[in-house]
Amino acid sequence: MPPYGAGDRQPGHHPGAEPARAGLCVVVAGGGTAGHIEPALALADAVRRLDPTARVVALGTERGLENKIIPARGYPLELIPPVPMPRKPSPDMLKLPLRVRDSVRRTKEVLTRVGADVVVGFGGYVSLPAYLAARGRVPIVVHEANARSGLANKVGARFATKVAAAVPGSGLPNAEVVGIPLRESITSLDRAALRAHARQHFGLHPTAPTLLVTGGSQGARSLNTAVGGAAGELARAGVGVLHAYGQKNTLAVQSVPGAPPYVAVPYLERMDLALAAADLVLCRSGAMTVAEISAVGLPAVFIPLPHGNGEQALNARPLVDAGGGLLVADEDLTSQKVAETVIPLLLDGHRLATMSSAAQGFGHREAAVKLANMVLEVARR
Asked: Are residue 38 and residue 103 in the same domain, yes or no?
């Protein structure tokens, strides 16, 4: 489904998004990237399963991925002005107080109009104005997905009623560890039962060892370059590839006659089928990615994002230590490194099975329900 055009909506309100006034109203704030959006939607689904009378409204901005994902999943989306935090000192910092004030004012209007009973934030630039707008007016629940908490959640946790975290040691006080909310299509996934259908869906070889490559919702150029450059060696080893290279990137790979297909797509609409099709995944280690992989028991080679505050390496480390994955630094990722690491692993069925068991034992399949119960309890107070 294509994104909504700018003429389809006005900032602060999505057409047709006015909810019915019955039942509790849960407002989720988790826009920007899939790592923030997907846990919010998994929570929304769990809230509806636990309380069918409840309404869930999502906050987002005009430029985020939420404009495509959230309406497609059947939830109303209310748009507020973004408040991006400058990474370095710049003239934009002088405009920050005005931007925050404007976004908070607009968010207060949304919370009043929809009759919010609780605000649930998942971090990022949509959550900060949501926390500030809800403070003293609407109870707040904070969920931190990363091993190291970000600025927005540090602010929100100071006046939240409840704080939840994916893993211990996030840095947020009094956080209850629940894991990361995941879609039911992931938590109920039977990889073995779906494998044949999944491979047919993507046009993959039905029996060849298969590598899934994903750099997250935006893709990752270093992964694209390294794996794309190893395509010939992977093909000659009899390895098939499903590669999500990102909608803003391009990837050209030469096919090898008689070898398993190398299937390249800009975005994976059916991540459940992608996980079922693969024997191994080479990926970034965003919190959401690590949670999905561990929940379904898929062995992984993690390439942490080399920027930020180092949280991606921290996200992957517990799973790697448990035996469910390997860790390779982004600066060490070359086409030769891909071939040397991936090919022997994919051809060793016993090792893959051992890693799969370790990964599955590390996962949190009930996180969405646990968080939903917490949220509904706060809302009912």
From this structure: yes
User: pLDDT tens digit string along 272-317?
Assistant: 999 999 999 999 998 888 999 999 999 999 999 887 667 889 889 9
C-alpha distances in angstroms, 44 versus 124, 274, 323, 373?
18, 23, 32, 11
In this structure, the answer to whether residues 358 and 369 fall within a common structural domain is no
Please report, for the domain that includes residue 322, its CATH number: 3.40.50.2000
236 and 335 within one domain? yes
Instruction: Convert the pLDDT of each residue in 130-142 to its tens digit.
Output: 999 999 999 999 9
Output the pTM of the full model: 0.77
Domain around 162? 6-182+365-380
